[in-house]
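Q: Structure tokens for this one, please.
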Amino acid sequence: MSRYDDVPMPTLRLALEAETVPELRAVASLITPRPPTRKAELVTLIAAHLGDAARLAAVLASLDDLGRAAVAETVHGNGQLDTDAFRAKYGGLPSGDGWFLGLFHGRGRIPTDLRERLRPLVPAPPPARLRGLDDLPLDAAPGDPDRPPDTVRATERAAQADLRAVLRLCETGKLRCSETTRRPAAATVKAVAEVLDEGDFYADEAIAAFAWPLLVQAGGLAELAGGRLQLTARGRRGLEGPPHVTLRHLWERWLQHGIIDEFSRVEAIKGQQAAGGRNLTAVAPRRQAVAAALAEAPPDRWVPVDGFFAFMRASQRSFEVARDPWRLYIEDPQYGSLGYAGHADWSVLQGRFVLALLFEVAAVLGLIDVAYTDPVGARDDFRDRWGTDELAALSRYDGLRHFRLNALGAFCLGVTDHYSPRVPSAPPAAPVWRVLPNLDVVFLGERLPASDRLLLEQYAEPRSDGVWALSQRKLLAAVDRGQGTQDLERFLENRVDPPLPDAVVSLLNEVRRRAGRVADLGTVRLVECADPELALLLANDRRLRGRCTLIGDRHLAVPLDQEEAFRRALVDVGYALFSEAAATRER
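A: Here is the predicted structure, written as tokens:
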């Protein structure tokens, strides 16, 4: 039947006429034990049988459950059976013989007029549903007693703390990224890992520490200046505003403007830059397909990742990662090509992209809680490919086994309009802060948030664990970096019962007074005149006035943005700016 896949089939008769005589006789034998031999008579017999409502209902009744489900999906869909989505939704495919051959033609298509007759007889199929578990399975890897149990991590609270800590790190100028790829340097990954509230997911594999510098860039919270990340105005607002709103902004921005293709982090699959980097499909539609499926996850229930894969396919939210799988390969471009039949299975390509997006973006931003294990040996869906014998895992994300959409995720995905943080069963005691008359800031709690430590280190010298000494020199250095003292004052006001000690108030007032007495007026070009009379003449000339400022007796300061205009006006006055280079040539 594949010979006629591209032939339009508006009517059943046209579809039947495109079949071979043996195929038609196989269907006609279901109507009469002695079917005709001529093709025209076979077409007429089958078309008449399926044109009768009672007989058509009997045909439907003769199909098995999968056959009737296939008819329902096709009739109430676009007229063509999506076998991949059907298999994912129902767990198998219909047998494809018997009356199935009389109803479906080409690649699983039902002719238009037959669809119209079938629609009243077949109820619409239920939509695909993503099911979850109240509790995680007791065995992380059934049948493998040596495998350690899953690590379970609730990410909501940590993501909000990590956001502030990373923004504080950007504020210090300690984070560097490539100006070409915008990916973080190794030292930056290490610095971020050290401030993560609960550490990275794996001790020896960067996931959150790699993702955060990319996320804040994509969200416009930080930008590169000379290879260093620095906070933008939006980033400063992110430090002051509710973190869940900023996290939602980062998620929405990443879906459209993520800096890297998550699939590029699956380094074991080579050839991604084939065809000049155009072999991979556009990444934004892939992300949006995953986000749409994620929004249908049952809240607060654990979803197996393989169940999520099946749901995406069953709900027709699938996508392609590569335009040409033959260009992708493992180890060797010829023998390890993923173009061979069965080598580019959904879980290997699309599934690894989904795992990367879930683990390295959604979980890092706190949208989903995760249950995961060591990626080594966690999945074996790639083992029958050439060149995989030496691979411990296909990706660093292979260990993700279950995820749970939490309250923050429901808010970020637009499932709910409001966010209410989950209240812990035993809330920790409120941290206690003290500011002493000797200018010491003292933390008396059990665990100091990294963002608080990073802020204090910018304004005070650490004396010991939990103790920082405020000083005029350190505060003025912060002002010189453009930070001012507002962040410190707001920090102290929110954590310390008023009033602050008089010595601290006096110190802050003195720093503000001293900072305001010296102003940065920008970079200028210093011009020296031969004598005071000439300097005064030029400074007061109507063509030069406003483009320079008299400094001392013989010098003029010219702002850099006025230099060209100053030079032209100076020539009009009858002089020219003489440089050392010109003097050398004169000599």
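A few notes: The domain at 524-586 is CATH 3.30.70 (Alpha-Beta Plaits). The chain has a mean pLDDT of 90.
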